[in-house]
Amino acid sequence: ILGSYHFPLADAFTRRVDLLKAKEETLKKYVAERPTPNVYTQVYNEIQQLVAVMMSPSRRVETVAALLCEFVTGDSEKDHQQAVSQTQLCRISLLRSAESLVKHYGTWYPDVVVPVVSAISQMSHGLSLMIGAARCHNTNRKVDVEPLLKSLVRFPVPDCCAAMELVDICTSTQTLDLIQETVRPKVKEGETPNNETFRLAKCSLQELRNVVSVRGRLDGEDDWAIICRILDCMVVAWQRQEQARAQKEQEESNYFINK
Fold first, then answer.
1. Chain centroid to CA 22: how far?
2. Which of 18, 109, 167, 216 is deepest in the core (most CB within 10 A)?
3. At CA 93, angle to CA 171 and CA 85, rounded to 5?
């Protein structure tokens, strides 16, 4: 009541307050159960072991690169089937690791486990696409490597905690560089390293775009440094491409003049 004015909902408000006061007497206080101190150490070590064993260049990148090379060249049916089988085993091991992380640590540390499992799932999906494409690749010797590489970097891995740095290799330029170095000697004729540079730059930009979308913002100088590094690589590749084109035109012009 304010002066002579009676608030229309005053009675309802008063009844609601009285009801809440009555319920207050019956409320129970619950304390959330906390994990033992060594659980975080265990999940950290398990992720580290996963990176060391399953996601190391010797186990993962070389396997994927070998599959890509067999996909491009198709030297022998035996090597082709072996590459497919190794990639399939790698994919199954990754899925088992993801299942173990969710089962043992998903309840305690979902902020750590969920992004890791998402990255593993994305990589597994990429490997599955590669396996399917390789199995269907019989007589056609032309291959577009771009979507296969993009399948490895499409899913973002936000750096929300220290443990996430361990799986950053899932979408890092290190993976792309290793694949590029392995595949480059066996790429189809007529494709230059500049083409690969542009292709990998597009993958990196797509990865960065997804990470920024998840964060909702640019992460200061780090993101801008990545953008500048990607653009520098693209500019250098473009300059080399233009120089090679100008040199070729000059050679053709001199050829006809001399002719």
1. 53
2. 167
3. 95
